[in-house]
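Our working data are protein records whose layout never changes between entries. An example says more than a description, so a record of this kind follows.
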Amino acid sequence: MADDARVDVKTAEEVIPLWPAPPSRTNPDVPPEQTFKAPGGGGPDTTMLRNVSEPTLTVYRPAEANGVGVIVAPGGGWRILAWDHEGVDLCRWLAERGYTAFLLKYRLMATPADPKEFAATSERMQARLTERFGSSKPPASLEELLPDPAMAAAREIANDDGRRALALVRERAGELGVQPDRIGMIGFSAGAFVTAAVAMDPGGAPLAFAAPIYGGTTGGRLVPDDAPPLFLCIAYDDQLLLRSVEGLYADWSKARRPAELHVFARGGHGFGMTRQGAPVDRWIELFGAWLVDLGFA
């Protein structure tokens, strides 16, 4: 990674509330927000957030801006946000290369306030997923993966926050140092579904580009005629979302919209910016080359 000195640390700490007034849809009974540590992407413990009820954008400004804005949406199954390795680390990578990055803290469903109870519920959920979707049985759709109505509702609220983030960056493009027609979005896992939802229905002008990383779906809807260029990548041994990503690429391709898909042999789910010493580590360089090829550099 490049030298962090190229990032303006003061403005990297600028945090903007997402909504000017309380939004109409909210997740019920969410306890106070908590920060905790957990392994990220097969690597060491990293920072995670949960019980987010006040969404924000954190701005990472480059020393020399190229006018391109990138909204970054971490993942975490709509229960947590993988804040560092799917958020902060990528925002710094982007800012080091001239992009103005906006780290989206979107709202999440409620989880137990007690850390021990939260850990126990997380272990039970993981056990159910492992039992239901073994190595030979990847889920064919998001609906099969998410039977929980509360999680499905949280997904739609996260999509609201994604669309609001795009509108907010456009509204303040001048002061934020970006061009309104050069704003894209990248997201991981649950954040990839947010990214795909915004790409399908931005609530205004289309995104300049979209990169759903190991996640995303069209939900069976037609891809818009002006849908943005799409960058997709996933590991073949990601048994949760391999079929979803393959389907998203196929839908974009059928609509004759530009899309690039990379499937790596190994890497599992949730690798983000974590280095594993495997071919999947190359995804970020491929993403950077894709942006350059599109003229966003």
